Amino acid sequence: VFFFGQSGNSFHVFDQGQFAKEVLPKYFKHNNMASFVRQLNMYGFRKVVHIEQGGLVKPEKDDTEFQHPYFIRGQERLLENIKRKVTSVSSIKNEDIKVRQDNVTKLLTDIQVMKGKQESMDSKLIAMK
């Protein structure tokens, strides 16, 4: 159902149905192959597409292969380099933050002006009554 590729830098899932039914529930809270593949992608694993398949033709046998640069048979020390991809706050540009701060400042100023006008209108309304 699951084994390393010949070169030792990938793994194969031969029968996805059996893999999902028997293997996934042992290690995950689900038995959904699509969720498993999504998790693999989040950790940087990629599906291997062979040239003869062209990526468009479904292989004759139920064989799905995944690889990761740090997933290599006999190289357990590399496994610590496999990390979940996260969007870091440092990837947000300082200019974007400045623009947002400017927008917030303008909104707060506009609110203060409107509040002043409202208070003025309330005073006039009370005087008219």
From TrEMBL:
Location of the HSF-type DNA-binding domain: 24-48
Keywords: Activator, DNA-binding, Nucleus, Stress response, Transcription, Transcription regulation
Full protein name: HSF1 protein
Record flagged with keyword DNA damage: no
Annotated organism of origin: Pterocles burchelli
Protein's UniProt keywords contain Transcription: yes
Intracellular or extracellular location(s): Nucleus
PANTHER family on file: HEAT SHOCK FACTOR PROTEIN 1, HEAT SHOCK TRANSCRIPTION FACTOR
Lineage start: Eukaryota, Metazoa, Chordata, Craniata, Vertebrata
